[in-house]
Design brief:
The chain is mainly β and 164 residues long. 7% of the residues lie in helices and 45% in strands. The radius of gyration is 19 Å and the shape is globular. The protein starts with a helix and ends in a 6-residue tail after the last helix.
């Protein structure tokens, strides 16, 4: 992700765009968590992909109603904004045990396995492992970009003026 974004910023919302005809669905116990991680490759064990204590829950709802349709959007305003540090990779953990009712959103092929999935069966239990997948869900992040703190003189120098 660092190659794609190249700067630190605070993520305040995530938007998904549906890629399926009209259909109404829902998920229960939906939780979204994030972490800054140094590793470039995922393993098949969920907990090995982030350091203990670094995964931050940023969104939770008991139930999430989904209105599908080509181009319809699902905007998740995060309960707790997440600071992406601009240097590491961003790990996003999406947990919903009632995955049978999830909807299709747009995806793109990353070329390498950058997604770890586990499909729950209805009423099934959680697993500590999953399978690696090359397709990543298309998401739009919104938030506030970090700015470097400088004096007015330093800003003038950066912009080509004189610093005195």
């Amino acid at each position: 992700m660092q190659e794609d974004i190249e700067t630190a910023f605070e993520i305040s919302s995530i938007t998904y765009v549906f890629a399926w005809p009209e259909q109404t669905s829902y998920v229960t116990d939906f939780t979204l968590s994030m972490a800054n991680v140094e590793n470039d490759q995922l393993t098949e064990t969920f907990a090995e992909n982030y350091a203990q204590g670094t995964l931050v829950e940023v969104y939770h709802t008991d139930s999430l109603h989904l209105e599908n349709g080509y181009g319809n959007e699902l905007v998740l305003e995060l309960d707790t904004p997440f600071f992406y540090n601009g240097q590491d990779n961003l790990l996003i953990d999406i947990y919903y045990p009632d995955g049978y009712c999830w909807s299709r959103v747009y995806n793109w092929e990353a070329g390498t396995a950058r997604c770890l999935r586990y499909l729950f069966s209805p009423g099934g239990s959680c697993s500590s492992t999953g399978y690696l997948f090359e397709w990543i869900t298309y998401m739009v992040f919104e938030g506030t970009q970090s700015l470097e703190q400088n004096t007015f003189g330093a800003v003038k120098v950066i912009l080509g003026g004189e610093g005195n």
